Amino acid sequence: MDAIVALAKRRGFIFQSSEIYGGFNGFFDYGPLGAELKKNIRDCWWNDMVRRRDDIVGIETSIIMHPKVWEASGHVAGFTDPLVDCKVSKQRYRADQLFFAPVFLMENGLEKQIGYASAIESEDVARDLAAAADKMIRRTGRRVPVFTDAAAVAAGNAAIHARLGPIADLASVSSRSDIEEFAKQIPSPATGEPGSLTAPRSFNMMFQTNVGAMTDASSVAYLRPETAQGMFVDFKNVVDTGRVKLPFGIAQIGKSFRNEITPRNFIFRSREFEQMEMEYFISEDADWATAHRQWIEWCKNWLLSIGLPASHLSEYDHPKAKLAFYSKGTTDIMFRYPFGVQELWGIAARGNYDLNQHATASGKPMEYFDEASKKKFVPHVIEPAVGVDRILLAVLCAGYAEEDVKDEKGNVEKRTVLRFSPRIAPVKVAVFPLLKNKEALVARAKELHAKLQRKYAVFYDETGNIGKRYRRQDEIGTPWCVTIDFETIEQDGTFTLRERDSMTQKRITEAELFALLDEQVY
Ligand code: ATP
């Protein structure tokens, strides 16, 4: 992960936001190559999801919507994470990511609990808890083996949910004062000492702002935490104007904002991010499970089409018990990031909850008249929702490789390569004149470069030897390099095409180059 973050910065893919002021946690900027890469991901999705389908239309709705939208959608009341504060360090933690385990010492053959160890959720949380417990025991001056309650470590999340979970869940477990007392026994991860953690409380993740000149309760509005509500709120407008017929979808790409308590893992969880969401409306008596499965398959195939390896993808079905009451089922497509297997794309079958909520709150009917059955009903929906930034991080992680290769003289050297699919690579082709001081070579290279530039993102480079120029392009994921040499200008006009992954070279004509690009970049 460190190597990927370093490359992202060095080659201008991703910078910390406001870096000159020390950065701003949870916000990122995309540099020249990152902006291209991100745009390509967006364009591929929009082309495949909207333009190349007859049953899906695209819209663009505003980021700040009427505050009643978020009341009706349930976000004002329920878009919360459980938050725990450390009163000493002023750090904040998500209670469901703060793990703890009781620590025991053996004394005269009896187990004696000496306190709790805590750690923040990670792939290695059990190891971190054991290390924290080990530290505790050393402080007692004892040198006997330490053990944490193995069951608690294994159960991890279950333990925290039962004892430090969201307040709403705790009401039946114990009284508020019991919870507060209990939280004081858990060491703060910041200080390593118990006593400073508060009991968990619900924290709404929506960013608030005020619209208009007044800053009072009546002017409060929110930055949208998802783009989906735009599609529900505009459902009637699209039906009335879009000449759409069930089943059909409404898609949107745009920024969303969540005041995440613990933004982390680089751009994986940030506070400002971009979503690509689609609401696929189906009849009330359609087979939702089949439609849901079809969308899961569509999403997986799309990820493969932009170059993510099948070996890194898996599915996670949300347990029925944890689904919202209206939800029929949610499946996440998971991706194996260097920091663990995490959600990339969520595909939810949401019934007709959202449209009904807005119908009730706005007083405007959301029914659809089905010509075929002559029936009026509120359609159900399947929602594939994905983050652009999470896809971008996935393609960076899957594409990154360091290899030993031989240069022209047979010496072994390191090459760093990003194996981006040509569909999303920020630069499609690099054009080199063999020598920069030969006017005819330079002129032909510049001519080809200009011609390619009309359709594709291309890069012209004349500095350094060809091997160095290849390495620079490998590192930013350019699939092909072409070199204009003396054969080009003195003989048949062909040039050398060098392929990034195989590093093989062959001679091709200009027409063949354009045909190759046409086939691979779509
Ligand atoms: P998580 O459980 O990881 O917080 P979520 O289940 O809340 O995600 P959804 O509300 O389903 O996420 O949002 C749909 C998609 O938007 C996610 O699958 C993810 O790709 C993306 N996404 C959500 N939150 C963030 C974030 N803070 N930063 C970047 N992308 C995000």
Topology of this protein?
Elements: H1 2-10, E1 14-16, E2 28-30, H2 32-51, E3 56-58, H3 67-72, H4 75-78, E4 80-85, E5 92-94, E6 98-107, E7 110-120, H5 125-139, E8 147-148, H6 150-155, H7 157-164, H8 167-170, H9 176-184, E9 201-204, E10 208-210, E11 220-222, H10 228-233, H11 235-241, E12 248-257, E13 272-282, H12 288-305, E14 313-317, E15 329-337, E16 340-351, H13 353-362, E17 368-370, E18 375-377, E19 380-387, H14 388-399, E20 400-406, E21 412-418, E22 429-433, H15 439-453, E23 458-460, H16 466-476, E24 480-484, H17 486-490, E25 495-499, E26 505-508, H18 510-520
Parallel strand pairs: 3-12, 22-23, 22-24
Antiparallel strand pairs: 1-2, 4-5, 4-9, 6-7, 6-8, 10-11, 12-13, 13-19, 14-15, 15-16, 16-19, 17-18, 20-21, 24-25, 25-26
The structure holds adenosine-5'-triphosphate.
